[in-house]
Specification:
The protein is 25% helix and 26% strand. It has 352 residues and is of the alpha/beta class.
Length: 352
């Protein structure tokens, strides 16, 4: 299938129009016309080889929303015209203990990434959602519930599930006390989910200017992490803290905020952590944990939850031709809170 998109040809040049062939449908495959694709910080990192050498040409995009255009002979769950979504992974071994537990994102044999990966069958590069079509194995296609705005649903497939998953794994609900560090693309979704699950939710921020926004998103309280007085008065205040900050920072100040048996969960891409004393962990039986994206079953649960609770990310719609400018704005933190590409804008290149 001839497909148009935007690709990074190397780590140093802007994304540019790119034409390529999607594979012919296998029996288990679903073909999707992409209508919208969210812009994730990891799209920029991988386009620039910031997380190690990327595979070029690279078509980013793993927050995909569209309509089924064709199905393989063995597909039973979807039909042409269905509204569907695709997230960060498009295949796994389906046999290991993690896959059998519906935790495909932690497949022991490694997942197939939606982009910057290799197809498990052919070995071909996988190309993502900055394009007008995609072909995905049925088990990794998600049903988009009725009533969920397709134009805003894309970021749920990464920012959404990345913050929803730890809240579910750590059994957050009424009576839980949850802190959220950072109020960007991930953080604003963590606040919405935590609040909707019934937890008392506090935003931990360095900026007093985030206070009104935090309350608008559903927070019950705001804790200014630059205030020694506020931090000291919040000792033992949280059962769970979700850390969404995507760059190196000191975890030590947050450990004293955890109650006994409390957990600090890192979901931001924190590659290096300054050294700190482990005494607060030992004395409080506290934990520092990490959490990746969720499995397919849990991601579907999240989408259904969002439809019931009317939860959507705050988005700014862009044209694909503006992707480089959007990357630059994203690096500056100049977006509230996620960009979404209207893939209909690809037609402008095709008609030029």
């Amino acid at each position: 299938m001839k497909t148009s998109g935007y690709a990074a040809m190397d780590a140093n040049t802007p994304l540019q129009p790119f034409t390529f062939e999607r594979r012919q449908l296998r029996p288990e495959d679903v073909a999707i016309d992409i209508l919208y694709c969210g812009v994730c910080h990891s799209d920029l990192h991988q386009a620039r080889s910031a997380w190690g050498p990327s595979l070029y040409p690279l078509v980013p995009g793993h927050e995909i929303v569209g309509k089924v255009s064709a199905v393989g002979s063995g597909v039973t769950q979807y039909k042409v015209g269905d509204s569907v979504a695709v997230g960060t992974i498009i295949d796994s071994c389906m046999e290991c203990p993690q896959c059998r537990r519906n935790e495909e994102q932690m497949c022991y044999k490694g997942v197939t990434l939606t982009y910057n990966g290799k197809d498990r069958v052919s070995g071909d590069l996988t190309f993502g959602g900055y394009s007008n079509h995609i072909v995905v194995r049925e088990e990794f296609v998600l049903r988009l519930p009725d009533g969920l705005d397709m134009a805003r649903a894309g970021p749920l497939l990464c920012a959404g599930i990345t913050t929803y998953s730890p809240l579910r794994v750590w059994n957050v609900g009424p009576g839980s006390r949850v802190g959220v560090i950072g109020l960007g693309g991930l953080g604003h979704m963590a606040v919405k989910f935590s609040s909707a699950l019934g937890a008392h939710t506090t935003v931990l921020t360095r900026s007093e200017g985030k206070r009104s926004t935090a309350f608008e998103l559903g927070a019950d309280a705001v804790l200014l992490s630059t205030s020694p007085e506020q931090m000291a008065s919040s000792a033992y205040a949280f059962d769970l803290i979700i850390d969404t900050v995507p760059h190196e920072h000191d975890l030590r100040p947050y450990l004293d905020l955890l109650d006994a048996d409390g957990t600090l969960v890192i979901v931001g891409s924190l590659l290096d952590t300054p050294a700190f004393s482990n005494l607060p962990l030992i004395m409080g039986r506290r934990r520092i944990a990490g959490s990746p994206s969720g499995g397919i079953r849990q991601t579907q649960e999240m989408l259904d939850f969002c439809a019931r609770k009317n939860i959507l990310p705050e988005c700014e719609m862009i044209k694909i031709q503006d992707i480089e400018a959007s990357f630059e704005r994203m690096e500056r933190g100049d977006v509230r809170y996620r960009f979404v590409i209207d893939m209909a804008s690809l037609a402008a290149d095709q008609n030029a």
